[in-house]
Automatic annotation (TrEMBL):
Residues 176-228 form the HAMP domain. SUPFAM superfamilies: ATPase domain of HSP90 chaperone/DNA topoisomerase II/histidine kinase (SSF55874), Homodimeric domain of signal transducing histidine kinase (SSF47384). The keyword Ion transport does not apply. This is histidine kinase. Keywords: Kinase, Membrane, Phosphoprotein, Transferase, Transmembrane, Transmembrane helix, Two-component regulatory system. One of its GO terms (molecular function) is phosphorelay sensor kinase activity. It comes from Streptomyces cadmiisoli. The keyword Transmembrane applies. The chain crosses the membrane at residues 154-174. It holds the Pfam family HisKA.
Amino acid sequence: MTRTTQLTDQLVERRSPALTHAVRLEAALVNQETGVRGYGLSGRRDFLEPYAQGVTDEKAALNRLDALLQDDTRGRAELAAVRRLADRWHERFAAPLANAPADRVVSLADSRAQEAKSTFDGLRRAMDRQQTYLAQERADAAQELRRATTLRNWTFAGIALFIALVATLVFEALRRGITGPLGLLGQTAREVAGGRFEQPIAITGPADLRQLGSDVESMRGRLLKELEFSERSRRLLDEQAADLKRSNAELEQFAYVASHDLQEPLRKVSSFTQLLQRRYGGQLDERADQYIAFAVDGANRMQVLINDLLAFSRVGRVHNDHAEVELEAVVGRVLDNLSVVVDESGAEITRDPLPSVVGDATQLGMLWQNLLSNSVKFRRTDRSPRIGVTVRRDEDLWEFAVTDNGIGIEPEFQEKVFVIFQRLHTRDAYPGTGIGLAMCKKVVEFHGGTIRIDPRYTAGTRVVFTLPVEHSAAADGAREAHT
């Protein structure tokens, strides 16, 4: 590569320019000879213009040749011979004729014509020899460059062939030693990933690859054990879920039947205790009147509790003909039902325009009845209730919020309040059975939604629940779980 570069530089930077400037030197001297001869024949000084230009070109060509041939001994010798003859021609013929007056130049040119021609012919022969030498040197350099280029190309071809051969050998070695075993490892790993967990991992190839295969095989074994354990757990969970579903169904059936069957004896107890109170009230001592009052109150509370329990057990069992329900109308009816307690408490209720949903109108009415009545019931004594109903859409769900400025619910009880019969206060402070929020949770989940207490709201209570925007399989699944 270096040799080729050197030869290229020598040819381009020295040999070819040297020959070019030798030709320019000859042209410059020929122009001078033509100009002097024309002046000698005509006596007109305008014929000396080529001579003057030739002198300038001669000097430039000689200077350039001196630089180009400084490392060429023969070339400098040929140049010296040309310069010596050119100087002789200038001194004896060109300069005297060019400087001669016009009236004498013709006779002077005639007297020296033969000698001048002979001298310039010798100069021509010297320049021919110089150009022949330089042309041969350029041809030799070009030939040497071609040989070097051919050698370089063959060398590169040999190197490329050697590299290709080495690459082929390396590739084959990699294929046999690494790629093949790695591909087999990948194939068996993909089979395992595709579900064939009983397929053992291929362990072949170099030590590192065998270690990798061993690690993957260990992972497969652990995964197989985990899958077996998971399958056993799934079967056990399915059995437990089936037992739980059956137990819940039996429990709901029991609650329904029990509450329904308890109605008649309870009505009888309540009727007789009330009759006893009316007939004998004030006729017995004070303690007897108190006992009778306790019995009447207990019977009444039992009646309310059984009614609530019966309503709770009916969620998901009756009134499950789902249709489009206008919540605006449902909440309007609920507020009409609560108008007395709302007026007595001085409650201020604001609400967003409510959408329509697909569901059971009766159960959704129970949901809003419990939420709004709770907001009125659990109010502070030092302020009037402020209740807000808001709604926003979150993708495929409507998110509702019922917010009040009441007594609030402590964080540790915000999940327990949705458990049936869970009470946080005495009956004397706030009447009720503790079924309201449990019923709300059951209604919301039956309709495919969720319900919670917002823990970030601390100025009272905010109950947030969701309902599907459209009828979906989620609601169907929730209803099936309750039936």
